[in-house]
Amino acid sequence: MKELVVFLAKQLVSQPDAVEVRETQGETASVLELKVAKEDLGRVIGKQGRTAKAIRTILNAAASRTNRKVILEILEED
């Protein structure tokens, strides 16, 4: 799952080297934390969150094959 998020995010942003994904495994769910450059945050989220929702949909479709739940969190840099 982590590789999928990295691939999708790098295709969307203008600074692919700044893409970081951290994965935390739980009992039945995985939490993926996506961090991108500040200027690329809008590209990853999209208008009214449409891009973020699409990424989450793709992730959940891939995760359903392994009977797991995936939660994607997009982190803002301070």
The end-to-end distance, rounded to whole angstroms, is 26 Å
**What is the arithmetic mean of pLDDT?**
92
Oligomer: single chain
Low-confidence stretches: none
For the biggest β-sheet, the strand order reads 1-2-3
**What percentage of amino acids are in beta strands?**
25-35%
Q: How many DSSP E strands? A: 3
Radius of gyration, whole Å:
12 Å
- Large-scale geometry: globular
The CATH superfamily title: K homology (KH) domain
Helix content range: 25-40%
How many domains is the backbone divided into? 1
Task: Give a short account of the largest sheet.
Answer: 3 strands, mixed
CATH architecture assignment name? 2-Layer Sandwich
Helix count equals 3
What would the CATH topology be? Answer: GMP Synthetase, Chain A, domain 3
Order of helices and strands: HEEHHE
Helix-strand makeup class: alpha+beta
Text of the CATH class: Alpha Beta
